[in-house]
Amino acid sequence: MSVRTGKSVRLRDIAAELGVSVITVSNVLRDRGRVSSQMRERVLKLAKELNYHPDLTARSLATGRTHLVGMVVPDLLHPFFAAIGKAIAAHLRERGYSLVLCSSDEDAVIELQEVESLLARRIDALVLATVQRAKSSRVFGLLQKASVPYVLLDRQIPGLKAPFIGSGDRRIGELATEHLIARGYKRIAHIGLLGPRTGAGRLDGYTATLKQHACTVDPKYVVLVESADDRGEDCGHRAMKKLIGVEPRPDAVFCYNDIIASGAQKALLEAGLKIPEDTALIGVSNLAGLCLWNSFQVPITSVDQNVSRLAALTASAILEMQDRNAPVAPKRVYVPPRIVVRDST
């Protein structure tokens, strides 16, 4: 064999060894063009034997694409965002794209810095679960100026002409509250999240559903907390302790997410209360179904957001942008959530 061991193998080396053109080798390795099955097998076998790896820098210069997709989420440690990032990466990998995952830590300034860093790496597209609150935010101006197509995931911005894929937070609030009402609970509280529109949407759904069923909407049963991620369990614990002191005590609580519900459960059990006999709990994200994360003594009923479907639709939108070499229509796609019933209700 003429190619020496340890040498950086190029397409021309494989082509010379097999006595074919560089274009033929390129077509095989990129799964393009019309090449006989026998030749395809020979090229792939030799490329594997020689441990061939494509020169990504050269490919980027030649095509104008890096085959990198950026993704910025509020918290890399949150099982929901970790699971959806993993699933999106798997879909993109099938088409030769790599996902670069970053965290904004729920901070608009950090999010801007991460987007700037991704743009400097010449990403081809971006998935953004944004913490920004207005379409005038600098992040979106940067993306427009750089002509980088992007998809909003989980969190939408009113008036912004960009594709959005999510569950619909108002519907999540409606579904959770309807479930508790159907179970016969009367004094339903809500531990919600300050700031993000996701929190406002779930609170709206909760309030609207109580009114629809002629249930009392009492401000003392609503506690808003500042974090639902890294400090979410502690916030849920403190909020539930506050609700335990309310007279009459709520007989059910809709929590913004399962992390908050975990802290709420801890507070209830510490107070000697039974779940669901004294107070029922429902969360959002179905973390027990996403991963091994499960710190619940009593399995929690949760609103499942269908991570696999969200990831598939997001990856599909990104790949469509790349195939068209242009942004896709700025439509909003809402994936229907569903209740996963467990012992807590």
Task: Give an overview in words.
The mean pLDDT is 89. Helix 1 packs across helix 2, helix 5 packs across helix 13 and helix 8 packs parallel to helix 9. Helix 11 links the parallel strand 8 and strand 9. This protein has 345 residues and is α/β, with parallel strands linked by helices. The chain has three domains: 44 residues, Orthogonal Bundle (434 Repressor (Amino-terminal Domain)), CATH 1.10.260; 135 residues, 3-Layer(aba) Sandwich (Rossmann fold); 136 residues, Response regulator (Rossmann fold, 3-Layer(aba) Sandwich). It starts with 10 loop residues before the first helix and ends in a 5-residue tail after the last strand. It is built from 13 helices and twelve strands. The chain has a six-stranded parallel sheet, sandwiched between helices.
Attribute tags:
single chain; alpha/beta; 6-stranded mixed sheet; 345 residues; Rossmann fold; 13 helices; 434 Repressor (Amino-terminal Domain)
Write the layout of secondary structure elements.
Layout: H1 11-18, H2 22-29, H3 37-49, H4 56-63, E1 68-73, H5 79-93, E2 98-103, H6 108-120, E3 125-128, H7 138-146, E4 150-153, E5 164-166, H8 169-182, E6 188-193, H9 197-212, E7 222-225, H10 232-244, E8 252-255, H11 258-270, E9 280-284, H12 287-290, E10 301-304, H13 307-324, E11 332-334, E12 338-340
Parallel strand pairs: 1-2, 1-3, 3-4, 4-5, 5-11, 6-7, 6-8, 8-9, 9-10
Antiparallel strand pairs: 10-12
Helix pairs in contact: 1-2, 5-13, 6-7, 8-9, 10-11
